[in-house]
Amino acid sequence: MTSLVIGAPQIILILSVFLTPLIAIVDIVRNEFTGNNKLIWILVVFFFNFFGVILYFLIGRKQKIKNPN
Prior knowledge:
Blueprint: H1 8-30, H2 37-47, H3 49-58
């Protein structure tokens, strides 16, 4: 019988798969975008998980509407 051992590589993998999309979706929901960009970014992050998060943080964050406050 084998035992299940969770080490640092497994924890990093779990965080990158589950936590980063959650952070991206929270950031998308909390900010304003023009047109349907908010919905499009949520779908990109949801369907393309890791690559969608990378695309959002590289491209999508620049598309947010700046608050004058």
